[in-house]
Amino acid sequence: AHRASSSPVVTLNYRQYGDPTDAPVVLLHGLFGSAANWGSVARQLASERYHVVVPDLRNHGQSPHDAEHSYPAMAADLEALLDRLGVGKAIVVGHSMGGKVAMHFALTSPERVTALVVVDIAPVTYAHDFNSVLNAFEAVKLDEIDNRADAEKQMKRSIDAAGLRAFLMQ
Fold this sequence. Notes:
By secondary structure, the chain is α/β, with parallel strands linked by helices.
């Protein structure tokens, strides 16, 4: 193990597609995303004879939440998931934040990466400001909603873009 994180590994929720004896591909979602973001791509790859593993990274989707949200911690979580599934090496594909996780994993565990695909992110330090998105989440009063439509109405006050709201509502 090449874990550089002192944070405990979290047991990631994941989806699998295809035959586990086929070549493994791991798909990593971006910030505020989940395994659901890769559904159609995962099904297509599985139909082309790949074993596709799509985790919810820590603090996303159905995976556990932890105070640490670092790339070393997320790469360690990925390594533990691959160990649990008996996957020695895989093609690793990451989008945005998932791309940073993929790059960190490839640097710390190169023997586990058959190929690396990074989408929509570069290996540089970014200065992100997600305050508007976080404020929109906080603006939703959970005790006043009965369904997604109610939550979206509340979120609409903070976020005009319907596509962004739909993505965040996942």
